[in-house]
Specification:
single chain; mainly beta; Tachylectin-2, Chain A; Jelly Rolls; 2 domains; 6-stranded antiparallel sheet; 1 helix; 33 strands; globular
């Protein structure tokens, strides 16, 4: 039965979304229906459609009492809003329905697991969030919370773990029918760990093991875990809080972590072999993956960073969008990401310029726009010394732009949006150490009104950033310090 709280949220969002013009939203990235959006939740394929839920506060464009927003798509690029799926309307989740996941049950129902939050009054008027895990079952539109919620609470934690930091369950079903779930947790050392739970039916859950312990190596608390097999390796994604930089890795504070290794299912432990950032840009957090019907592992993330949320202004009717969905693979012990192939179907108005030589600022005929898919190959001019720097400016007018610059002698690629229209001192730059031989670099740059995603060397690195320039700023220019030879193929995205 739908609660009054959920009915009110559904009524409000249906009315409020009508004041947001289509042109004020991204073209093919999912944005919030109205109000506030953060983590993707319940990314799943159900009844012939991709379902994506998200952390949601419909009433203002700021963090509030968390609901679950809901949208569906057949191609991962064109999304239809559905009514909000969950609202904080029970004693155990009255202070928020936090992040979680979804699976299809053997009987065809859609099962959601989410972190249910209620505040506990401590001494001296201090409150803390008590986090438990709860279930809801539905048909893809309406969901009913499980009568025995919460299904995991303090008694299901290993010794020393806190129920203040116990969140973000990610479920899957193994080939033998067993349901698994990984959940972020904080042990007694104040660091992070990932817990593993199992279930025979998706409803009765038991603690199995500590999957992996952080031991204060990668930040502190680990949020939003995801574990899956990919290309004969096991991949664990997590989002550590309070990370310290490590070379060119992990510069975002609240960052993204990918561990590649093995999963010992019998022992319930993950054996890590390598680590890397998931995204090397500014705005990417809390990714979640889904296994597509054709076998692809597809990931989507919140296109924001907790350190940049101050850009929100109270008068904005919406705040928050998702990244472009990305196809994942593992090559040579590294996670690769490429835009979903469905994006190719949106390409139109091809413009091609090959063997362009330049050593200063140039603009090219037909190369402009804010909904663009652009492939660029940089290399030194034949017979010339390697160039000092190459740069691409986009979302550009006489005053504003966002830039991508490459210094081949250092193999450093930088995204810089300090001149993109921001009026606040937020994070504006990120640098990445990329693979480049002799100044050769391959880029795929995807623009969608308010964002840029840069895929380097066929997805070996990815840099994501939001932009704040007026939409009228649609110029694209190129700069070189030294002699650069360039191929560019540019498409508009309809």
């Amino acid at each position: 039965m739908t609660s009054q709280t959920l009915r009110e949220a559904r009524k409000y969002e249906e009315t409020a979304e009508k004041i947001i013009k289509k042109e004020d939203r991204p073209g093919f990235h999912l944005s919030v229906r109205t109000g506030w959006l953060n983590d993707p939740n319940g990314f799943s394929y159900y009844k012939g459609e991709y379902h994506l839920f998200y952390q949601y506060y419909p009433y203002e464009s700021r963090w509030g009492s968390m609901h679950w927003g809901h949208a569906v798509s057949r191609d991962l690029l064109h999304w239809e809003y559905l009514p909000a799926a969950l609202a904080p309307d029970e004693a155990y989740d009255k202070d928020g329905c936090f992040s979680g996941s979804a699976v299809t049950l053997p009987d065809g129902r859609h099962l959601l697991m989410y972190t249910s939050v209620c505040k506990k009054h401590l001494e001296n008027d201090v409150f803390c969030d008590i986090q438990t895990q709860s279930l809801a079952v539905g048909d893809g539109i309406d969901y009913e919370k499980y009568a025995k919620n919460p299904v995991l609470d303090e008694k299901d934690l290993p010794e020393g773990a806190s129920n203040i930091d116990f969140r973000d369950p990610k479920m899957w079903q193994a080939e033998d029918g067993t349901f698994y779930c990984v959940i972020g947790s904080r042990p007694a050392d104040g660091s992070g760990q990932i817990l593993l739970y199992t279930s025979k039916d998706g409803f009765e859950w038991k603690f199995k093991s500590v999957l992996i312990s952080n031991r204060n190596r990668f930040g502190k608390m680990w949020e939003c875990p995801d574990l899956f097999k990919l290309d004969d390796a096991w991949v664990l994604l997590a989002n550590p809080q309070g990370m310290l930089p490590k070379g060119f890795e992990y510069h975002n504070g609240d960052g993204t972590l990918c561990l590649i290794g093995d999963f010992d299912e019998e022992a319930g432990t993950f054996i890590e072999k390598s680590d890397q950032s998931i995204d090397y840009g500014i705005d990417f957090y809390a990714p979640q993956t889904v296994l597509a019907p054709d076998g692809r592992r597809i990931m989507i993330g919140w296109m924001q960073n907790w350190g940049t949320c101050s850009l929100r202004t109270p008068e904005e009717p919406w705040f928050g969008q998702m990244s472009i969905p990305r196809e994942l693979s593992v090559k040579n012990g590294r996670l690769y990401q490429r835009p979903v192939r469905e994006l190719d179907e949106m390409r139109c108005n091809k413009v091609e310029h090959l063997n362009v030589s330049f050593s200063d600022i140039i603009r090219l005929e037909g190369v402009k726009g804010r909904r663009v898919d652009m492939e660029v190959v940089l290399r030194p001019e034949e017979g010339q010394e390697i160039y000092q720097k190459a740069a691409i400016r986009f979302a550009q007018d006489d005053n504003f732009y966002t830039a991508l610059s490459f210094r081949p002698r250092e193999s450093i690629l930088k995204v810089d949006r300090k001149f993109s229209g921001s009026r606040k001192a937020i994070i504006h730059q990120r640098r990445s150490l990329v693979n480049s031989t002799g100044g050769n670099l391959k880029l795929r740059i995807i623009l969608d009104r308010f964002s840029v995603e840069v895929f380097v060397n066929d997805g070996e690195h990815v840099l994501t950033a939001t932009m704040y320039t007026d939409q009228s700023a649609d110029g694209i220019s190129f700069f070189a310090d030294g002699k650069v030879n360039m191929d560019i193929v540019k498409y508009d995205l309809h």
